């Protein structure tokens, strides 16, 4: 490896690691500010908080890594340009493409690391993070009984303390309701004073009560005086010790398997398997729907199976009934209540066969044209029954079509979410590569080092990229875009930008040179009459 390549790589690795951890720290602080209310006052051990932060930081790597690549590239080539080191390299006959070469290999290695992390590490981190965050948010606050308040956070107990001394132990005017028997306020203990302490193992809340009474109403007792009178036991004590179990306040971790089937906790092979399974399940549901809807229209075979003994023209069907049937069927056709491509109807060209074969209708329900000649061939009672069957079948088809359409849409959205996660594994890797070319090229053009200008430009470019990524992902989840186009939308937008700025940088174009634009505008204004510069 040449000294120049080694110098470029060493100059790049330092800012890359530094900016990565800075971006990760900022994202982690944002997470902490968002969920700070779920942590405070619950008595968590520091190891629990540290574990949650560790898993949370792993989930922020897909955002922090591309930003770090962009910012470090801008800083490196901005410093080289500002210190005229880049000019010295070019004066030695070394092109900018040659300077980029070692860092391109580094960017490719970073992209492969990002893909491995996204496919193997991130699903596990997501699973553990979601499970631990759920446990933390569901954890009850630590026992904190204030004076003058009925405290009911402890299961089966309601406690009221009138006064509490500054030592936090001595209490006065105590009232404890015991609801363990599930009979309401039938067991009450009151005392003038006492002490409230936590046991050594933090598992029990110990009340040492002085000078009080215990009232116990035994509703289930058989010693009832009459229908409206129940016995009550009153016990006076000089000192009583009550131990209340606090095991429900112990922090318990849930099994990580509860989120195992979530699409965000899967790798590529698992996502592909579940996506294909969902497609097969959706096709199976559509076939079942087609079968039941076809059964609802079985009444159409009555006419196609040939004339029977009930056919008679002696008593025609009133025109009102015929119009009702035609109007109802027309409305069903106009509303397109039947899913196209899944409805089976009998053929009309084979009336001599008892069970006519079926064909699949590829469009609307328009293969059977109801007219007066069909319905008037039946007797009045048979015609009414036929009309009623037609209306019932049409309504059932409408309801089943609505349900099948909703089910189909839900399955399609779930399939889209699996495809989105599948594409996300690759977009992270390519984003790192794109941001390297954009950052390195812009740094070589603007020639501004430090942390000020590169940071502003990096945040602007990354936020714009992230906004397009969110728009594409949200659109894909509601089926407004295909998962492929939605997840690659921001990449499609930034790919031409990376090619353009890389070309401008290698061609030494004054793309962001202030003097170039000042001279350009002065040249234009000098050609305008009555304008003096």
What does this structure look like?
With 533 residues, this protein is α+β, with helices and mostly antiparallel strands. It has 3 domains: 201 residues, no CATH class; 100 residues, no CATH class; 140 residues, no CATH class. Helices cover 57% and strands 13% of the residues. A hairpin with an 8-residue loop joins β3 and β4. α4 runs parallel beside α11 and α12 runs antiparallel to α14. The longest helix has 67 residues.
Strand order in space, largest sheet:
1-2-3-4-5-6
Give the averaged pLDDT, no decimals.
76
Q: Which descriptor suits the 3D outline?
A: flat
Give the N-to-C terminal Cα separation: 54 Å
Q: How many domains is the backbone divided into?
A: 3
- Structural class, from secondary structure content? alpha+beta
Task: State the order of secondary-structure elements, H for helix, E for strand.
Answer: HHHHHHEEEEEEHHHEEHHHHHH
Instruction: Please work out how many helical segments DSSP would assign.
Output: 15
Tell me the β content.
5-15%
Total strands: 8
Poorly predicted runs of 5 or more residues: 302-317, 335-372
Instruction: Tell me the major beta sheet.
Output: 6 strands, antiparallel
Helix content: 55-70%
Radius of gyration: 38 Å
- Give the oligomeric state: single chain
């Amino acid at each position: 490896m040449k000294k120049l390549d080694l110098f470029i790589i060493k100059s790049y690795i330092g800012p890359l690691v530094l900016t990565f951890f800075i971006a990760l720290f900022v994202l982690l602080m944002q997470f902490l500010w968002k969920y700070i209310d779920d942590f405070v006052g619950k008595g968590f051990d520091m190891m629990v908080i540290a574990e949650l932060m560790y898993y949370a930081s792993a989930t922020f790597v897909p955002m922090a890594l591309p930003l770090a690549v962009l910012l470090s590239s801008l800083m490196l080539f901005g410093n080289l340009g500002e210190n005229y080191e880049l000019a010295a390299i070019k004066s030695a006959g070394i092109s900018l493409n040659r300077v980029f070469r070692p860092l391109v290999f580094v960017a490719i290695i970073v992209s492969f690391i990002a893909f491995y992390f996204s496919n193997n590490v991130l699903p596990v981190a997501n699973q553990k993070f979601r499970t631990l965050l759920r446990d933390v948010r569901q954890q009850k606050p630590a026992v904190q009984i204030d004076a003058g308040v009925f405290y009911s956070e402890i299961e089966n107990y309601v406690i009221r303390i009138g006064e509490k001394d500054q030592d936090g132990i001595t209490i006065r005017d105590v009232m404890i309701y015991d609801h363990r028997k599930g009979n309401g306020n039938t067991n009450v203990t009151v005392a003038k004073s006492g002490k409230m302490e936590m046991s050594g193992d933090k598992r029990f809340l110990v009340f040492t009560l002085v000078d009080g009474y215990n009232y116990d109403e035994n509703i289930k007792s058989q010693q009832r005086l009459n229908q409206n009178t129940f016995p009550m036991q009153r016990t006076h004590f000089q000192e009583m010790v009550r131990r209340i179990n606090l095991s429900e306040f112990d922090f318990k971790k849930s099994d990580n398997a509860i989120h195992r089937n979530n699409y965000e906790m899967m790798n590529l092979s698992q996502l592909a398997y579940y996506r294909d399974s969902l497609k097969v399940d959706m096709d199976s549901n559509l076939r079942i729907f087609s079968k039941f809807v076809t059964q609802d229209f079985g009444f159409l075979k009555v006419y196609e199976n040939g004339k029977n003994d009930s056919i008679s023209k002696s008593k025609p069907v009133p025109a009102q009934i015929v119009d009702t049937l035609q109007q109802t069927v027309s409305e069903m056709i106009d509303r397109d209540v039947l899913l196209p491509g899944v409805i089976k109807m009998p053929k009309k060209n084979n009336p001599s066969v008892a069970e006519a074969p079926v064909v699949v209708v590829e469009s609307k329900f328009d293969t059977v044209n109801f007219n007066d000649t069909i319905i008037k061939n039946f007797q009045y009672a048979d015609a009414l029954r036929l009309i009623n069957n037609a209306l019932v079948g049409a309504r059932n088809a409408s309801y089943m079509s609505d349900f099948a359409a909703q089910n189909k849409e839900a399955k399609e959205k779930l399939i889209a979410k699996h495809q989105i996660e599948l594409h996300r594994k690759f977009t992270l890797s390519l984003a790192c590569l794109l941001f390297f070319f954009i950052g390195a090229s812009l740094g070589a053009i603007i020639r501004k080092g430090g942390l000020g200008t590169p940071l502003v430009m990096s945040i602007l470019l990354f936020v714009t990229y992230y906004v397009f990524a969110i728009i594409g992902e949200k659109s894909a989840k509601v089926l407004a875009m295909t998962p492929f186009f939605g997840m690659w939308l921001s990449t499609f937008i930034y790919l031409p930008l990376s090619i353009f700025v890389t070309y401008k940088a290698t061609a030494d174009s004054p793309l962001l040179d202030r003097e170039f634009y000042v001279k350009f505008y002065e040249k234009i204004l000098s050609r305008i009459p009555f304008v003096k510069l």
